[in-house]
Here is the input.
Amino acid sequence: MATAKTRDGRGRFLPGNPGGPGNPEAARVARLRAAVLEAVTPAQMRRLMKALMEKAINGDVAAARLVLERCIGTPLPVDVLERLSLLETILGEKQNAN
Here is the structure.
């Protein structure tokens, strides 16, 4: 069974490749986001954030997590000992090179 060649020798798509279907949900999500933006005023958003911050400050862990994730991003899983070992190895190699 022969198939049309769609990539070059380096794995890149050849000209004329139709690509994939994309994200079929993207249009629906965009419409929902637009509806939310139309329904919520900036003043309402400020009130919402103030209420959420107040809950977070008063010990609501879920509220604190939401505020932190939205402000500084979701924490990345990190193996601290593995990173420490790697950094020590790199530093040792640099010291030995001098």
In short: The radius of gyration is 25 Å. Helices lie at 26-39, 42-57, 61-72, 80-97. The chain has a mean pLDDT of 88. The CA atoms of residues 66 and 80 lie 24 Å apart.
